[in-house]
Protein backbone atom coordinates (compact mmCIF):
# COMPACT_ATOMS: atom_id res chain seq x y z
CA UNK A 1 0.00 0.00 0.00
CA UNK A 2 2.86 2.37 0.86
CA UNK A 3 4.58 1.85 -2.50
CA UNK A 4 1.37 2.40 -4.42
CA UNK A 5 0.49 5.52 -2.46
CA UNK A 6 3.99 6.86 -3.02
CA UNK A 7 3.57 6.55 -6.79
CA UNK A 8 0.65 8.98 -6.62
CA UNK A 9 2.33 11.34 -4.15
CA UNK A 10 3.99 14.60 -5.20
CA UNK A 11 7.46 14.18 -6.68
CA UNK A 12 9.34 15.56 -3.67
CA UNK A 13 8.02 12.68 -1.51
CA UNK A 14 9.37 10.16 -4.00
CA UNK A 15 12.87 11.65 -3.94
CA UNK A 16 13.47 10.92 -0.27
CA UNK A 17 12.70 7.27 0.38
CA UNK A 18 13.73 7.41 4.01
CA UNK A 19 11.98 10.73 4.62
CA UNK A 20 8.68 9.60 3.20
CA UNK A 21 9.03 6.29 5.03
CA UNK A 22 9.56 8.10 8.33
CA UNK A 23 6.49 10.20 7.63
CA UNK A 24 4.48 7.06 6.92
CA UNK A 25 5.78 5.37 10.07
CA UNK A 26 4.84 8.37 12.20
CA UNK A 27 1.36 8.55 10.68
CA UNK A 28 0.88 4.81 11.17
CA UNK A 29 1.92 5.08 14.83
CA UNK A 30 -0.38 8.01 15.52
CA UNK A 31 -3.31 6.63 13.56
CA UNK A 32 -3.14 3.01 14.65
CA UNK A 33 -1.44 2.82 18.05
CA UNK A 34 -2.69 6.06 19.52
CA UNK A 35 -6.14 6.43 17.93
CA UNK A 36 -7.63 3.38 16.24
CA UNK A 37 -6.64 0.58 18.62
CA UNK A 38 -7.89 2.37 21.77
CA UNK A 39 -11.06 3.49 19.95
CA UNK A 40 -11.81 -0.12 18.99
CA UNK A 41 -11.19 -1.26 22.55
CA UNK A 42 -8.25 -3.45 21.55
CA UNK A 43 -5.85 -1.60 23.86
CA UNK A 44 -6.22 0.69 26.82
CA UNK A 45 -6.25 4.44 26.62
CA UNK A 46 -2.91 6.00 25.65
CA UNK A 47 -2.81 7.69 29.07
CA UNK A 48 -2.89 4.26 30.76
CA UNK A 49 0.38 3.17 29.15
CA UNK A 50 3.81 4.26 30.38
CA UNK A 51 5.76 6.70 28.22
CA UNK A 52 8.36 4.03 27.50
CA UNK A 53 5.83 1.90 25.64
CA UNK A 54 4.86 4.89 23.47
CA UNK A 55 8.52 5.59 22.69
CA UNK A 56 9.09 1.91 21.83
CA UNK A 57 6.04 1.90 19.55
CA UNK A 58 7.08 5.10 17.80
CA UNK A 59 10.67 3.93 17.25
CA UNK A 60 9.39 0.59 15.93
CA UNK A 61 7.14 2.34 13.42
CA UNK A 62 9.97 4.68 12.39
CA UNK A 63 12.28 1.73 11.70
CA UNK A 64 9.50 0.03 9.73
CA UNK A 65 8.82 3.22 7.75
CA UNK A 66 12.49 3.87 6.98
CA UNK A 67 12.93 0.27 5.81
CA UNK A 68 9.82 0.47 3.64
CA UNK A 69 11.10 3.73 2.16
CA UNK A 70 14.53 2.29 1.33
CA UNK A 71 13.07 -0.89 -0.18
CA UNK A 72 10.58 1.07 -2.27
CA UNK A 73 13.28 3.46 -3.50
CA UNK A 74 15.53 0.53 -4.43
CA UNK A 75 12.72 -1.23 -6.28
CA UNK A 76 11.90 1.93 -8.22
CA UNK A 77 15.53 2.14 -9.40
CA UNK A 78 15.54 -1.50 -10.48
CA UNK A 79 12.25 -1.26 -12.36
Strand content: under 5%
Gap between N and C termini: 17 Å
Could you give the order of the helices and strands?
A: HHHH
The tally of strands reads: 0
The coarse silhouette is elongated
Overall pLDDT: 88
> Gyration radius, to the nearest Å?
14 Å
How large is the count of helical segments?
Answer: 4
Question: Any low-confidence stretches, pLDDT <50, length ≥5?
Answer: none
Q: What structural class do you assign from the helix and strand content?
A: mainly alpha
Q: How much helix, percentage-wise, in residues? A: over 70%
Question: Could you outline the blueprint of secondary structure elements for this entry?
Answer:
Blueprint: H1 2-8, H2 11-15, H3 17-39, H4 51-78
Helix pairs in contact: 3-4
Give me a quick take on this structure:
Helix content is 80%, strand content 0%. It is built from 4 helices and no strands.
Structural features, described:
By secondary structure, the protein is an all-alpha fold. It is built from four helices and no strands. It has helices at 2-8, 11-15, 17-39, 51-78. The longest helix is centred in the last third of the chain and has 28 residues, at 51-78. The radius of gyration is 14 Å and the shape is elongated. It starts with a helix and ends with a helix.
Keywords:
mainly alpha
